[in-house]
Amino acid sequence: MTSMRSVVRRRRAVAAAGAVSAGLLVLSACDKPTPLSTITVGSSSVSSEATCGGEDGVLEQAELAKCLADKDVKSISVDPDETVRFGVDPDVADQRWTILMNGQPLTEDSSKTYRTIPGSVFFNAQYGAQGDSTLVTIKAGDGKKDSQAATGLWSFQLKKDD
């Protein structure tokens, strides 16, 4: 009788160990999501995970160019009279970030989690805008002030709303 209980206990222990191992395997297969960036205009907002990078590794120049050419990004309508609000996760702010407009820096890098820009800027030729649509990219840096390195890009299309 005692040996039967011992066998049952061993089987339960093996089954429990197997369940724990399977659970750890499933968890290790999950990718950690990249931080989110959000653009808000009035009462509308759009959020996205990184278009490229976002996992602390510095992106190569060729990869940056490819990512900035990607047109399959989320969009939001912008009334030029509204304020456009940019928000990033604290992890992105810690790495310092800047706003690019059509691939060119629009702001200096910052360690804040929130920035605002008048909507009219995104459709003004003086700032490099072309037409009624502008590609805006949030570029995460490497944590060093004024560094040109990029660790992640979050791109959005701003569409002029008349």
TrEMBL record:
Leader sequence segment: 1-29
Origin superkingdom: Bacteria
Ordered alphabetically, the record's keywords are: Signal
Q: Does the keyword Signal apply?
A: yes
The keyword Signal appears for this protein: yes
What name does the UniProt record give this protein?
DUF2771 domain-containing protein
